[in-house]
Give the backbone structure.
Amino acid sequence: MRKPRRLTDEQLAPWVWSAASGRRRPPVPEGAENEQGADVPRSPTRINWESLYGNAYPVEIEVGTGKGLFLLHAATARPGTNFFGIEIVRKYQLYAATRYAIRNLPNVKTACADAKVVLRDFVAPGSAAAVHVYFPDPWWKARHKKRRVFTPEFAADAARAIAPGGRLYLASDVEEYFNVMIAIVRAMPSFAERPDEADRAAPHTADGYATNFERKAMETGGSVWRAVFERTAEAVTVAADPAP
Ligand SMILES: C[S@@+](CC[C@H](N)C(=O)[O-])C[C@H]1O[C@@H](n2cnc3c(N)ncnc32)[C@H](O)[C@@H]1O
């Protein structure tokens, strides 16, 4: 990874959200995967987006931001939308936060946390305009598949987070995992597929690729699958797992 200019914690603070802000060291949650230093306390409170960003713009969440390229483009291109990126690996979160800090982008924050926990416990129902999940880790080996972020429970938590009329954006370069994701979402009455909008998942910009993993896939001649779903007004259900 090319090292960006190193900024201090104080310089990065406006771009870093921590559920444990105000405490010197966040407590390790019971049973949580915290080896990578994710900031998740025991007693969650819902995030107040308006006080976090200082305005009432709609909020879009990205799960697994990696080095943060998608949010860099999106936050620059859409200053009237707030973006919240969740990344479980601290060095990637800080890399992304540094990119936003250097450009002084006011409408993007990053969290170092397990996105499954954040969506389930910290995001108020109906408070997000969109959730983006781009190139999630496929965890190929059968015994590792339980580590995948996109499960029926995760999809249900995303549905709870997204306001009716909002969007769930999905992209992957792994056909098998993509098919699992869309099978889960297609089985949920709380989502309706919008094939007419599929190109808006990880959309290209004038600057090129939408995400680092999309660039890797395209440069090696791979395929990319994309889907967009609209949040309906139906109650949230948990789909059966198509890949148990
Ligand atoms: C294959 S990378 C894709 C990164 C980026 N979306 C892209 O397209 O370039 C998947 C990212 O998701 C992160 N990740 C994996 N599980 C996660 C979880 N439970 N919560 C948040 N981030 C997670 C990984 O650390 C990694 O940075």
User: Anything to note?
Assistant: The domain at 1-24+33-124 is CATH 3.40.50.150 (Rossmann fold). The beta strands are 16-17, 59-63, 82-87, 108-112, 128-134, 162-172, 191-193, 225-231. The chain has eight helices and eight strands.
